[in-house]
TrEMBL record:
This is Mechanosensitive ion channel family protein. It is a multi-pass membrane protein. It is found in: Cell membrane. Residues 165-245 form the Mechanosensitive ion channel MscS C-terminal domain. The chain crosses the membrane at residues 6-30, 50-68, 74-102.
Amino acid sequence: MKPLDLPTILHTLAVLCIGLFLVFFIGRLLTRVLKPRFSPHHLLLAQKSFLYVGIVLVVCTVLIQLQVNLTAVLGAAGIVSVAIGFAAQTSLSNLISGLFLLGERPFEVGDTIIVSGTRGVVLSIDLLSVKLRTVDNLFVRMPNETLIKAEVTTVTRFPIRRMDINIGVAYKEDVKKVIRVLKEIADSNPHCLNEPEPLVLFKDFGASSLDFLLGVWFEKSKFVDLKNGIMQDIKERFDQEGIEIAFPHLTVYAGSETPPFPVSVTQQADELNK
């Protein structure tokens, strides 16, 4: 390799700077053009792929300008790649899993998902991992292999959802009245959808309560408003109707042969004045 003169070095630096500028500029332009046609995670993948390929081409051009023998460089890179491949089997598994995720599309950027007890919004879907932001604003990186093996729940996949509320009332309450009141609560709540209609189900005879299920449909963006509103509506309406919400009761039993024993509570007058 001949010694490099100053004009060659300056020309090489110019090629490097202009090449990188064009790669990033065209990458942004490509993102704007493809944005209406592609989903967010496919758009992100296309943008990163273009950037990686463009940077590699610019680096190869610079090496040619520096009169570097690319054959030797590529040969050494091949040997290094084989060695890295044996040492990075986990990364290869994540890469293959990432391709499956991109093809299957169980979720997209912006969706809320639940994976192994972790709930968060999808920030990006990369070839090796998926980035999440949890509800308490924590950053979570999950390997793609974990997402392929685990059960993934996409909370925001469909435009509407159903919220199931389990309610237990005392055994003395009238079942028909409870069902009627629950239906009226659902019909009067502005965040509950009329179609599909709310579900009121008498589920079971519980250990200490009559168990009911109230299922109401709502738009996925109204979860918090509906949750706060309908729980408050149930409590206030049950109080107005005199319906007792069941809670654990303790019964002291001393045996069939033992007569009931009296219990009295006394309180001194001076204690009342404290």
